[in-house]
Design brief:
By secondary structure, the protein is an alpha/beta fold. It has 11 helices and 8 strands. The chain has one domain: Phosphoenolpyruvate-binding domains (TIM Barrel).
Amino acid sequence: MPITTQKLTRFKQEGRQIVVLTAWDYLIAQTLDQAGVDVIMVGDSLAMVALGYDTTVPLTLDEIIHHAKAVRRGVKNALLVVDLPFMTYQESPEQALRSAGRIMKETGAQAVKLEGGYPAIATTVFRLVQAGIPVMGHVGLTPQSVHQFGGFRKQGNSPEAAERVLEEAIALEQAGAFSIVLEHIPEDLGLRISQKLHIPTIGIGGGSHCDGQVLVTADLLGLSEWQPSFAKVYVNLRDTIAQAVQSFSSEVREHRFPNG
């Protein structure tokens, strides 16, 4: 049965962990969906893993829509969530409505995700939800603010910073977000937020007490040249693919393919 935002809330109530992975094309999306992933996210991380940018900041709305349409074709059961790229929602709730509306109409996604907390972002989330657009929040390390943070650094380390992250998460829940990503924060803070909120928390470097976990699929598969400290590589496809290509190349050059 297809996953819905309501089912995710029920999973939290039942203590069932939520599995989330990212996708950027049809084949990856189809594979993840058939493997039983609960949520497939077209994250702005595709800027780095699929388009070769150094950060997520350059990604455009047209680019993520292009990839999300391909992902949609491969997804039958998972909940599809698409990120709003940098500066497609920060100016005003009206800008966010236009951007999210395009994503929902053009890709068939069931929800959008945006970064940040209060007060401006929580107001934007409220406006989107009132318009019928499900929203996933994202606090802690927010990659679109990488230049402000001075790099991909853990957030919420001091008592004051931790309190602010908690307050942002609460504000997003009150604004109507159906779930919140907690990225690169201390484990005890992830526990506090997960216990405080009624909606599911999805950790990515947020500790073991979150209601679910997400990884960038390219990191999980060992396709990325670099992975963050909180990622786990389950298979090294980068080397496997390279070895397969080298074997093919050798056979072609030695006249062993296709007749060898």
